[in-house]
Design a protein that fits this description.
- The chain is about 35% helix and about 20% strand.
- By secondary structure, it is α+β, with helices and mostly antiparallel strands.
- The chain folds into 3 domains: about 90 residues, Uridine Diphospho-n-acetylenolpyruvylglucosamine Reductase, domain 2, CATH 3.30.43; about 120 residues, Uridine Diphospho-n-acetylenolpyruvylglucosamine Reductase, domain 3, CATH 3.30.465; about 200 residues, 3-Layer(aba) Sandwich (Vanillyl-alcohol Oxidase, Chain A, domain 3), CATH 3.40.462.
- A hairpin with a 4-residue loop joins strand 6 and strand 7.
- Helix 1 packs antiparallel against helix 3 and helix 13 packs antiparallel against helix 14.
Length: about 475
């Protein structure tokens, strides 16, 4: 079966775009969650949509699973291949098919980098709002698969709020068009169903993006606090005041130290937590909101504030925040970037509990997160060379996710479920809900060839155990270093 598939793939792809050797496919064995990896049978590098469709149809004919992959920045194991399956790497599908400034639309292929769209639209005063920290490298196909957000999702929403339509290839090779060029569409929201499905429903070939006017003015403020809990409570105060900032972000001391070491970020060395607040909009709107924000920050107990005086200072503040994930690599050889959500009013309580868990497990946890919508990103540090270190870090991560659910939140905000968090889906949803998800997936992909093993929990075993081997390892689907 696999020999027949490889023979068919050789007819579609020249040797330099059909990767079969171990050295060629190693870079594709894992994604941003490097604890999991699997060796695919082959990696194909299509340059046209037609080649993607032919590859999917070949996989379907031979009942071989496939995984679509962009830049591989997923932090939940969502882009880890299936052992002896096919990786369809989409980075070379990077055309901007259509740019229409008058109607504020861009139609792009899935390999287009996130920030490239805003660069193209900038001369017309437009941009693409979702801004994940990996924006300079992540692809829009991945943004669609995981419904990515970013620092400004409080005001502007997630990827799903900025995608109008999709051209997709289903797991059996059929091509479908979902949505269109308008916000007002007739019928069920199939575009919304596809976004965030983590590749279980097929592959996006074209993505119709909604562009919005770039804000005229920014007012960026950072406030220092003597406790993480105070910074969390300040977020609730800002939102309760009636203000809707473009962004509300928090970094703790460990994250600030990492950013200081990495890029010389301008953070006070005596602060236990830093809150970044950004107002944006018309000059009149920002000028009216600025005094109110300053009053709230003073009342919240901040002991030091800094207001960016120009674009250069604003860039320094945001560069420090957006480099925090990678900068933590200076402090620890390995770390898990977790992704859960709690209600804003519970932020202080959640952060206090994370600190308590960190002390209990004896594991350092850096906190960097989108505080405006309660999206926590605790970075759990460990040394994978130490026996049992990864398992203990994952156990701590599980406590954090279950805390999020207990406080009325979610196990994911923007990183998806992937391999890592399948075990916790049933903490959020009942058996009927989970079975409905399975049924919906099987209705679209009866053979379950598209990115199998991701998102949906197994009927017989959880995706992660606190101790011991990952069940997918035992099934031969993935391996772990």
């Amino acid at each position: 079966m696999k020999d027949a598939l490889l023979a068919e793939l050789r007819e579609i792809f020249p040797p330099d775009r059909l990767l079969l050797k171990k050295a060629q496919i190693v870079p594709y064995e894992s994604d941003g969650l490097t604890a999991f990896r699997a060796q695919p049978l082959a990696v194909v590098l299509p340059t046209t949509q037609a080649e993607v469709v032919r590859a999917v149809r070949a996989c379907h004919r031979h009942a071989v699973p496939f995984v679509a992959r962009g830049s591989g920045t997923s932090l939940s194991g969502g882009a880890v291949p299936v052992a002896q399956g096919i990786v369809i790497a989409l980075n070379r599908l990077n055309r901007v098919v259509r740019y229409d400034a008058a109607n504020r639309i861009a139609v792009v292929e899935p390999g287009v980098i996130n920030t490239r769209v805003s660069t193209i639209a900038a001369p017309d005063g437009l941009y693409f709002a979702p801004d994940p920290s990996s924006g300079p490298v992540c692809t829009l196909g991945g943004n669609v698969a995981f419904n990515s957000g970013g620092a400004h999702c409080l005001k502007y929403g997630m990827t799903s709020n900025h995608v109008l339509g999709l051209k997709i290839v289903l797991p059996d090779g059929e091509i479908c068009v979902l949505g269109g060029d308008s916000l007002e569409m007739v019928g069920p929201d199939l575009t919304g169903m596809f976004i965030g499905s983590e590749g279980l429903f097929g592959i996006a070939l074209e993505i119709t993006l909604r562009l919005i006017p770039r804000p005229e003015v920014y007012f960026t403020l950072q406030a220092a606090y003597d406790s993480l809990e105070k910074a969390g409570d300040a977020v609730a105060m800002v939102v309760a005041s009636g203000l809707l900032p473009g962004a509300l972000e928090i970094m703790d001391r460990i994250a600030m130290d990492a950013a200081l070491a990495a890029i010389g970020a301008i953070y006070p060395r005596d602060a236990k937590a830093m809150l970044i607040v950004e107002l944006e909009g018309t000059a009149e709107e920002v000028e009216a909101e600025r005094p109110k924000l300053l009053d709230v920050i003073r009342a919240s107990g901040a002991h030091e504030t800094l207001v960016a005086q120009d674009a250069t200072e604003r860039l320094k503040i945001w560069t420090g925040r957006k480099s925090a994930f990678s900068a933590v690599g200076r402090l620890s050889p390995d770390f898990i970037v977790q992704d859960g959500v709690v209600p804003r009013t519970k932020l202080g309580e959640a952060l206090a509990e994370i600190e308590s868990l960190s002390r209990r497990f004896g594991i350092r946890v850096a906190n960097v997160f989108h505080a405006g919508d309660g999206n926590l990103h605790p970075l759990i540090m460990y040394d994978g060379r130490e026996p049992g270190a990864w398992e203990r870090a994952e156990e701590l991560a599980g406590h954090i996710l279950r805390m999020c659910v207990r406080l009325g939140g979610s196990i994911t905000g923007e990183h998806g479920v992937g391999l890592e968090k399948r075990a916790y889906l049933r903490d959020m949803f009942g058996d009927f809900d989970v079975e409905f998800m399975h049924a919906l997936r099987r209705a679209v992909d009866p053979l379950e060839l598209a990115n199998p093993g991701k998102m949906l929990p197994s009927a017989t075993a959880p995706a992660l155990t606190a101790r011991g081997a990952h069940p997918l390892e035992r099934q031969g689907i993935i391996s772990r270093e």
